[in-house]
Design goal:
Layout: H1 7-15, E1 30-31, E2 34-35, E3 37-38, H2 51-65, H3 80-92, E4 99-101, H4 105-116, E5 125-129, H5 134-146, H6 151-154, E6 155-158, H7 169-178, E7 183-189, H8 201-210, E8 214-218, H9 230-233, E9 237-240, E10 255-258, H10 305-321, H11 323-348, E11 354-355, E12 368-371, H12 376-385, E13 388-389, E14 391-393, E15 397-400, H13 409-425
Parallel strand pairs: 3-13, 5-6, 5-7, 7-8, 8-9
Antiparallel strand pairs: 1-2, 4-10, 9-10, 11-12, 12-15, 14-15
Helix pairs in contact: 1-13, 2-10, 3-10, 4-5, 11-13, 12-13
Bound molecules: pyridoxal-5'-phosphate.
Length: 427
């Protein structure tokens, strides 16, 4: 599509947007009586208007039935998990039985490590991305210590080449080949939180399996942002949080994917609890753990039904909009953003501003990361003053993520204008 570089064109794109009605499904933050430009859907997605109602329904069930609400009423709590994994299956690209909604991200990663990281002799190495999100690093470090291993002996980090921002797929694959006899696990992010780089999960998974390793992904920045096909790609496990692109609220309930080939394995190592116990006999409360033969078999505790409700409220909007449609709009938005941004970058030059997100459409999602060698903080403050929600990461990176559910092309236009002015003002 040919874009135009005036505000009229942005408005035309918004008028023609088949998803425009979904903006009204969210509470947009306001400042000085005006809707702000919220580009932090990658950090905490905005609140759906229907979240309150869904939570109230749970409160009403509780009020009406007490503990019997698990079994009774218009929406028995025991049936709610099914209503979550159905819409999630489209977003994650998995069968509903391969999904479990439970806990939060970091704890789920520990639980997946228990099942999928089974070091044997010298086959104990883990390949992961350098400078992964800190929680992932701490998870690995402490998990390995718990197993009596020294993280330094086990972790192989892949970095971008000197002078580059992105990790090259060929460098990941070369490392897998190099360590093929001692590799136990590849643990990688679907989308890097800092640069917004999307990784080729299918290729990485195939390479890992050929080397005899398991392959798992952290999808914190991928779930609800990019197209995923975890089942088809043969991924072993994955975990994500639901408060970023999935709009399910601060500290929302997380999720995990476990490929169906593991559901029936009797010797699968795991940390169990009663909520993972075979549903038909759970309430007999007998000794000896018998897992549910789906991803639900990895649950431990009674889930928070209140968190289920806020997750459901958001997933319902994804279903109504259609995830494929959202991906189409997301791609159009980022093409438009790059179209407007490139002249600003060319004009000011790399001493002032650099795009550190890959430009190729297959290699980025909604997020754009910009590196400012000098006046980043000042630019960031000016954007904030202009009513734009972006975020700041040391040593000079501003991240934004226009999302297809509630952001507009006009907002993108206004952002690029404000950015150009902010840079020009920094002498
Ligand atoms: C946001 C994020 C987390 C956060 O983990 P929680 O356990 O949900 O607090 C972890 N890993 C990555 C890659 C993230 O982007």
């Amino acid at each position: 599509m040919e874009f135009g570089n005036d505000i009229e064109f942005a408005r035309q794109l918004d008028d023609a947007d088949p998803l425009k009605r979904f903006r009204k499904c969210f509470h947009i933050p306001r400042g000085e009586g005006k809707e702000q430009i919220y580009f932090l859907g990658n950090s905490l997605g905005l609140q759906p208007v229907n979240t309150r109602e869904e939570i109230n329904r749970v409160l009403q069930q509780w009020a009406n039935y007490g503990v019997e609400a698990f079994f009774q009423g218009e929406e028995p709590w025991l049936e709610m998990h099914e209503r979550l994994v159905e819409p999630l299956s489209w977003i994650i690209g998995a069968r509903p039985a391969e999904l479990v909604v439970m806990n939060q991200l970091t704890i789920n990663l520990h639980l997946m490590m228990v099942s999928f990281y089974r070091p044997q002799g010298k086959r104990n190495k883990i390949i992961c991305e350098a400078r992964a999100f800190p929680s992932d690093q701490y998870m690995l470090e402490t998990h390995l210590k718990h197993l009596g291993l020294d993280p330094k002996d086990v972790i192989i980090e892949i970095t971008p080449r000197t002078g580059e921002y992105h990790i090259r797929t060929e460098d990941i694959l070369a490392s897998v080949t190099q360590h093929r006899d001692e590799l136990a696990l590849i643990f990688w992010g679907g989308v890097n939180y800092y640069t917004g780089q999307v990784f080729d999960m299918e290729l990485i998974t195939r390479a890992g399996h050929e080397a005899g390793a398991k392959v798992g992904f952290d999808l914190a920045h991928a779930a609800g942002n990019i197209k995923l096909r975890l089942h088809e790609w043969n991924v072993d496990f994955a975990c994500w949080c639901s408060y970023k692109y999935l709009n399910s609220g601060p500290g929302a309930i997380g999720g995990a994917f476990i490929h169906s080939r593991y559901h029936h394995l009797a010797d699968m190592n795991r940390f169990a609890g009663w909520w993972g116990y075979d549903k038909t006999s759970r309430f007999r409360m007998e000794p000896g753990f018998v897992p549910i033969q789906t991803a639900e078999g990895w649950q431990q505790s009674t889930p928070s039904i209140l968190l289920y409700a806020s997750h459901f409220a958001a997933l319902k909007i994804f279903s109504d909009a259609g995830f494929e449609n959202l991906l189409i709009k997301a791609e159009a938005m980022s093409r438009y953003l790059y179209y407007l941004l490139q002249p600003v970058v060319d004009f000011h030059g790399s001493s002032k501003i650099n795009i550190i997100t890959p430009v190729d459409n297959n290699a980025h999602g909604c997020q754009l990361s910009l590196f400012f060698p000098k006046h980043g903080q000042e630019v960031f403050k000016k954007l904030t003053a202009a009513g734009i929600f972006a975020d700041w990461r040391e040593p000079g990176v501003i991240r934004i993520a226009p999302v297809p559910l509630y952001n507009t092309f006009t907002e993108i236009f206004e952002f690029v204008g404000a950015l150009g002015n902010a840079i020009a003002d920094c002498k």
